[in-house]
Amino acid sequence: MKEIRIHGRGGQGSVTAAEMLSVAAFKDGKFSQAFPAFGVERRGAPVQAFTRISNNPIRLRSQIYTPDYVIVQDATLLETVNVANGIKEDGIIIVNTKEKPECLNINTAAKVMTVDATKVAMDIIGLPIVNTVLLGAFAGATEEIKVESIHQAIKARFPGKIGEKNAEAIQKAYDLIRARILTTEANQDNKICPKILKKNHETRESEITCCNVCKPGSALKNKTGGWRNFRPVYNYEKCTKCGICEIVCPDMSVKPRKDGFFEYDYDYCKGCGICANECPEDAIGMILEAK
């Protein structure tokens, strides 16, 4: 039996990815199981989803604690979640990022592979929808599932042009990973990169949690800006200082400045985009957090 854990944020389709992986495995003639794990957190909060695939009936119903494979849909999760927790030494971690594996501070003996799934999705689908794209990368990296079976599962779930575009993006990610594996660079051990993150993952708690605000009075102590995958930014040339952004912000992360304009407290802004939707002058834009 092979176990896969998917890390993402609320709204990124982690649950759908786990389900589609399970359906693809079934189309390959295997037994499969998929289920999520998340609490009451809203869009942007870290979530997990799980998939098991096996040649024999699966009777286990627990969460996955020692995965063979890990898929990380958003590289910003590496700063707050120990995605390598419990992974087997001969496992593989696939991360959606444009960085090279050696530039990621992941404390693990497992192999780390990267693919810029966001770019693939934007180029082909036109939207930063990476959950299906990463399934293609998974198929290429592990060969546990046939990429054709993933195509079938996606097209059955999303018929028509949407399914076709997703299948094209899946194939692109699959081809990128397969080509990389065939190169000498892909078979080298991970090196230390000068751009590596300073945070030491060895100091993190062993348990993976999905919640940043866990009890009353902890909102200020537990900064929830790490939930964000899109960041709101002001265009002050358009701003009329109406203050609607401050009124509608559910997290009170919009703060007035002395000059009458406003600014964000990014420690707590979750990137929900309500301010951008309600701004009457379109003075607020949403950009990918990675930028």
Structure overview:
It contains seven helices and ten strands. The protein has 291 residues and is an alpha/beta fold. It has two domains: 2-203, Pyruvate-ferredoxin Oxidoreductase, domain 3, CATH 3.40.920.10; 225-288, Alpha-Beta Plaits. The strands form three sheets. A six-stranded mixed β-sheet has the order 2-3-1-4-5-6, with helices on one face. It has a two-stranded antiparallel ribbon with strand order 7-10. Helix 1 (14-27) crosses helix 3, helix 2 (117-124) runs antiparallel to helix 5 and helix 3 packs parallel to helix 5. The longest helix is centred in the middle third of the chain and has 21 residues, at 161-181. Residues 197-213 have low confidence and may be disordered.
| Rounded radius of gyration (Å) | 20 Å
How many strands, what sense, and barrel or not for the largest sheet? Answer: 6 strands, mixed
| Domain tally | 2
CATH fold topology of the largest domain: Pyruvate-ferredoxin Oxidoreductase, domain 3
